[in-house]
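Morning!

This is the sequence you dropped in the shared folder:
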Amino acid sequence: MTTFNEFIESKELEEIVGIHKYTKYKKKFAAVINKAGVGSCDITDESAINKLSIGSWNWYGFFFTFIWCLYSNITSGRNNQWYFLAVIIGLYIISDFVGFSIPNGVAIGMSVVYGMAGNGFFLGEIIRRYNNGHRGIMPKSILNIFLVMGIFLLYGIFSMYLYPNLYLE
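The structure's back. Tokens below.
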């Protein structure tokens, strides 16, 4: 049984986040674990992993929200960014057909949430992958970002095709 506190001090975490970033993330992850109160819990306890979303501030999570999550491969558990992204795209498509606009407050609110919980999301993803057998450095994924950009490009082309008068005025 490995506890969260033991995992933070372990060589495995250093290998996963990288030697150069380990000291930075070790402090942030320790703060997340202390806020969540799960330091003595086993890292395989899914309810304890879900409590990590209390998090600590992450500027990349605040400014780049989905792009940061997809680049960091935060795609498992209840923080699956593909589901959130599908919902957001669905809302924009529905808003085009119905004729209402999604307020900017939604985007700002999501940025604040991801900024506040970013390091907790990242730690939760690392622990889930570790529990599933991942060892070594956490891969980054540029492919995820290109997929999202492609989806938005197709959405833009589709919108221009359906509503050409909106874009010609």
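Headline: Residues 4-168 form one domain.

More detail when I'm at my desk.
O.
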